[in-house]
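pipeline/complex-builder :: batch 7 item 3
reading input block
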Amino acid sequence: MSVRFQVNGKAVEVEVEPRLTLADCLRQKLRLTGTHIGCEHGVCGACTVIVDGAAVRSCLMLAVQAEGAKVTTVEGLSNDAELTPLQKSFRKHHALQCGFCTPGMITTAHALLCEEPDCEAARVREVLSGNLCRCTGYIPIVDAVLEARAAYKQKGAT
Amino acid sequence: MKTVNAFIGSPIERLEDLRFLRGRGQYVDDLERDGMLHAAVLRSSVAHGSIRRIDTAAARALPGVHRVITAQDIGAPVPRVPMRLQPLPEFVRFGQSVIAETKVRYVGEALALVLAETPAVAEDALALIDVDIEALPAVADSRTSATDQSLLFEETGTNRAMLFRATRGDAAAAFKDAPYVRRETLRTARHMALPLEPRGLLAEWDAARGKLTVSGGAKVPFFNRRTLAKEMGLPESAVEYVENDVGGGFGARGEFYPEDYLVPFAARLTGRPVKWTEDRREQLMCLNHAREAECEVEIACTRDGTILALRGHVHVDVGAYMRTNGAVGARNIAQFMSGPYRIPHIDIDVALQLTNKTPVGTYRGPGRFETDFFRERLLDMVARDLNLDRVEFRRRNLVARQEMPYRIATIRPFDKEEEFDSGDYHATLDRCLAEIGWAEKARLAGKLIDGRYHGVALACFIEGGAAGPKETARMVLEPDGLYSVYVGSSAVGQGLETALAQIAADALEVPMERIKGVFHGSTSYVSDGYGAYHSRSVVMGGSAMLAAAENLRAAIRAAAAARLACTAEQIKIVDGTAAVGPNGTSLELAELAGDGISAEGAFLNSKHTYTYGAHAAHVAVDPKLGHVELIDYMIVEDCGRAINPLTLHGQAIGAAVQGLGGAFMEHLRYDNEGQLLTGSLADYLIPTASDFPNIRAVVLDQYPSPINPLGAKGAGEGGIIAVGGVIANAVANALSSLGVEPRELPLTPSYIWELIQQAHPSPAGGG
């Protein structure tokens, strides 16, 4: 069946089997391979994308459920010119090693900071606890997200 | 080494991050090819049994299924997974066929491979394969294995794959006269590396050129190429292994697994590209497991705390087959039981017992995590018996700086003599105690504060690195005047490109921007390579690059001399961009690139580096819940020479959290039938962002390794090695008033609660 939604600001129409997950749709049909699949049972968070403003595990959502939605992936939170403040902060704090969990961390952190740019460390840890990382020990990721708050506060103010 | 630059030693932000942060990394599952088939593997749901029938007719009839492959399609003899390390002839009879032939020996063993037009259809087809397996009695633990009542390999008459023995001095004599002896039985549970990216392979067969390309290589692509070429009857030059971005390795990923044969075989059979991507359930039951060991260990000391001797028997549960590096953990348990301590008399034997469980392999700090738990736990028990200060007891027995190089126990069969290379083990211990504020925290030991018992502990470790025999690098002067670097090392997510670019820039005396790229891990880049294991990439690859840089500079001087009509000795290379001859004549190096200037360099090494250090922890234990909060954790290690302090620090912290998973929660559980009970991430728990927020690390480089020109030592495993020991000791210290002595890992809340109940049926503070 056909499903229509927006991905990173662009309207798409995709022919999918009803059982196809949004994660597989993004990767296989739309070739947006920044969204990673780590467990396919909603635990690891590597496939997190932003659907209508909310961080969602795209392995637990069917593509057909995205009908009419606005979907943002890590590619949509990036530009060629330079790293975003959140990405810069990740790099500065060495908040990534193998990079596999990173897209899910970026989307989750972005969704959090858009909603709660004043969140404290405990809240950052709580929200990120739904995303597994096997390399960093999380401490630098939490530090990176905390430092990036400033940019989101400014954004909110303008 | 002379340095004009100082990129080595600087906390350079990583080059890799620019693509990873934008979602532009390219992992193997991101690859697509026209006409590609998708593979799915049917796996045994029976731990031990004889195969009666595999009927694939219904699966083959499913629309979209291209082919189903079983052992019959591969034909006799079915190739086997080789031993890469410790390739002893005794292990051959316990090797794993790449697909089950007549028996299955663990849940997860491959029975059939389905090739279909989509991944979903391939998985649908798995359910249509009719398999009849006659169950045999399962061997689910090493004790049952040792009885030999049910044999995994009947023809061998034994479930014991090997007995390693580590000896030094005369332990029997030392125990005979010892004034104090203590014996303990300690256990570590089965864990796994669990890299976040599941494995994957994409194989392409070019029939016209007789060439096979395998993407998804990692860790040891050159060894895997040799293996695959031999097993497929191809010349090595006809097989190319391509390394993509790799989502974590930790020892487990990149070894030659059954799928490393099956997927390329399928590609050649069908003439179409074939991709296979492991799912998480498959990974939990197919990727190498590790760590499961039971140790009966005995220590002899003087009453004032000088260790005289150590002896013991260890049973390691190696699972169903001996695969590539499956003997390393057991071997290391034997050799490193004594850790960084001066123990004159040692006699440790380690039995490798086969069970109907997933085969084992290396996992970060193989054997060392286990022995640090065994040994450091035992040392604290001894200190308590003899009323010794735990720090002084360790200080008295640590190998001293003046004793370097220090010979350790010798392993039989197979190994050469082994010695620690350099360092001041007391200095890292003292620094660790100072950093955590030991004097102050020690006052909290055993105290009950707000309903929780506080405990502090320390442990020391050594970490081996820099496995030989060789690494190769090649440097090329490009027409744009930039330099490309090729190396036989592999990246598994540890930031290799950045660290090696730093070394290359310093060696060539150019800014890092002039290093066009560090290309690694693919078999087409250099003539030979050994990859990423035993914390070797920076030491071996980096040292090879120094050699290559020197050769390249010599080649540049020679080429410039020919153009400027002078001798090579008269040429000076300025800023890595220009060659200046006598009388001020000069030319841009870019002009020389057309001459095809490149140079290889190699580094050969038969010794190992030993990073070392200490960990200390402060915990609070809730006696009602058995929950432990990690209040503070400190790692101090000396790695000889830090190439990039930013990434090195990250390795230490990340490794510690991985170790805390093993200390507190990770456990691959099986039932008595050999069924894996932890086949999802909801069952196999690993640390999350909220579990262990208080960890600090200090990485020193005060004592360079004398065995390589960089002075660097393998690093990246030290953060995990001491964790189990220090955490168990901290919990014991907290609960010392109750007499609780943990003797196994993981320290789950229920295990701690049970220990408290056994020691003290109604715990204080339980009001």
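note: Chain B has a mean pLDDT of 95.
queue -> next item
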